[in-house]
Amino acid sequence: MHLEGKAAIITGGARGVGFAIAQEMARQGARIVIMDPGGAKDGRPEGGTPAEAAATEINAAGGEAIACNESVTDHTACGRVVAACKDRFGRVDVLVNNAGILRPKMIWNMPEEDWDTVVAVHLKGQYNMIHHAARVMREQKWGRIINMASEAWRGTVGQANYGAAKGGVFSLTRAVARELGRYGITANTICPSAATRLTLDEAVKAGFRKRLEAGLITRERYEQVMNMGGPEHIAPFACYLASEAAAHVNGQAFRVQEGMVAIYNDPEIKATLTRAGDGTFSIEELARLVPQALLQGYVNPAPAGEKE
Ligand SMILES: NC(=O)c1ccc[n+]([C@@H]2O[C@H](COP(=O)([O-])OP(=O)(O)OC[C@H]3O[C@@H](n4cnc5c(N)ncnc54)[C@H](O)[C@@H]3O)[C@@H](O)[C@H]2O)c1
Q: How many domains would you assign to the chain?
């Protein structure tokens, strides 16, 4: 077992990727706090207490788990959950910031509430949890923070709120990795890809079927989506990051799916244009030099006039 004696909080741990990670961490000997208020995939209330059900299932399988029905958007409640983990298990070793919702719309149709709510769950929620957990982890001089992001951070259509929040998760992770590393705490990002209600519910499947029938996607692409691996393929990598073996993996971002683990480049400047003299480029100079010096090989991701 790789996490014997550890205590882990998993936000959004009642379903999908979070639950798979909770189950695997419990099998690896960790005691688990499932933090999840439930709700529909857009974050609206739905009834039920999935956190209780998830904790019951882990306990029935021989693990040790408790449920908290709190939301990561509530700063004070996040402090209560961290305190509950410490009270019950004596430590807070692992924090998996996994809670997530979706409210997709084009930016011109996106109401302020959909922007605020998505950013509150994905980005502010991760800050809320790290803020409280880091205090305990610093005292322990040991901790592992694993933040779920998404490929959407690289640019997406119809999900500016989600993509922006996930981009924020990358920067947040890189910052806290640098602040907390000296205390024996690591922080890393995972961009998962797995079949869950977020990615492959009946509505999504019907949408892909329609696009296939309309000739908008190839059968190969359709089969690829329909056969996407489950969240159990993400869990071993999260356990690895939480384990002693990954003590020196810090501030990194990984892409994980069935049968594949990849690491992202560090963002860096790829070309530079400098000007001697007074240092102020004229607009004419920029119009001439930018394409030559900075945009070699560049492809516009959305050229004007392209079909919608
Ligand atoms: N599944 C994928 O392929 C995929 C791809 C990219 C990113 N992600 C990210 O992985 C994470 C998990 O996604 P999933 O696919 O398992 O989705 P999911 O809907 O199956 O699970 C998300 C869980 O988060 C919980 N949650 C929602 N709001 C919460 C809140 N305010 N506080 C605490 N919990 C809350 C939900 O109740 C749910 O149980 C998300 O952050 C998501 O953005 C998933």
A: 2
As a whole number of angstroms, the distance between CA 91 and CA 143 comes to 10
Residue pointed to by tokens 């997406």: 156
Residues 119 and 219 in one domain: no
Q: Which of 198, 200, 225 to mutate to test the pocket of ligand 1 (most atoms within 8 A of CB)?
A: 198
Catalytic residue annotation: 150, 162, 166
- State yes or no: pLDDT of 99 exceeds 90: yes
Distance, CA of 87 to CA of 275 (rounded, Å): 60
The rounded Å distance from CA 122 to ligand 1 centre is 9
- Hey, whose CA ends up nearest to atom 19 of ligand 1? 198
Q: Does 224 lie in the same domain as 157? A: no
Pair 158, 215 in one domain: no
pLDDT of residue 277: 87
Residue 104 belongs to what domain range? 7-194+229-263
Q: Where are the beta strands (DSSP E) in 70-122?
A: 94-97
Question: Do 31 and 115 share a domain, yes or no?
Answer: yes
| 0.90 surpassed by pTM | yes
